[in-house]
């Protein structure tokens, strides 16, 4: 006959088994992400950890430059489970066998915007002509060393026919957010992915580049080939595709791929 004491003992043992299984299933997920997705990623870490019990370890919140770049770090063998980069960079890592083929998931579209120091007049950049005028009149210009700045300096300025006029007053920002440079007054205007401008204190966001000259970059996630936690890595990527993640992306200045385009 089952006694109350026996039932309690079995319940305690069962609870212990559940706790043990839960512990076994809780993995560590190491993440390296480009700066454009960093604010979204950082805000989603805690909800993901609460929902899954996995522990997220942040390896990078910026693509980086040279030997400090995410691709270079992966090539040196630094551990990662999930990597979030612009599509072109992630595709290269897939070709090299560093990201699992078929694991790439497009997360968000990112547009380029402009900012000025907080309190400064916000110039009109709503048309290509007005943008060109602002660039020529600006005393100093800052742009990112990443995808947005590469586009501006190697394509857009030339397309507008003003590359030579802008060279002397432009600076390429490598190791910090463009917004930080503008906030200190070291550049009158600055350009970067909108999601990287919005979090910076001391600046005012002006708006996106005109549609005719805008460059949209898609940021995607992939599972690292040498991951120690493949299931947890895929669970994190799935979480980035959730409605909660979509709301965070939108607030951060990104356009989530999981929602229809307006």
Structural features:
5-stranded mixed beta sheet; alpha/beta; 262 residues; 6-stranded mixed beta sheet
Provide structural commentary.
With 262 residues, the protein is of the alpha/beta class. 42% of the residues lie in helices and 22% in strands. A 6-stranded mixed β-sheet has the order 2-1-3-10-4-11. Strands 7-6-8-5-9 form a 5-stranded mixed β-sheet. Helix 2 packs antiparallel against helix 11. The chain is elongated.
Q: How are the secondary structure elements laid out?
A:
Elements: H1 4-25, E1 28-33, H2 38-52, E2 55-60, H3 70-75, E3 82-86, H4 87-95, E4 105-110, E5 112-117, H5 128-137, E6 141-144, H6 147-159, H7 163-166, E7 170-173, H8 178-183, E8 189-193, H9 194-197, E9 203-208, E10 217-223, H10 230-239, H11 243-252, E11 255-256
Parallel strand pairs: 1-2, 1-3, 6-7, 6-8
Antiparallel strand pairs: 3-10, 4-10, 4-11, 5-8, 5-9
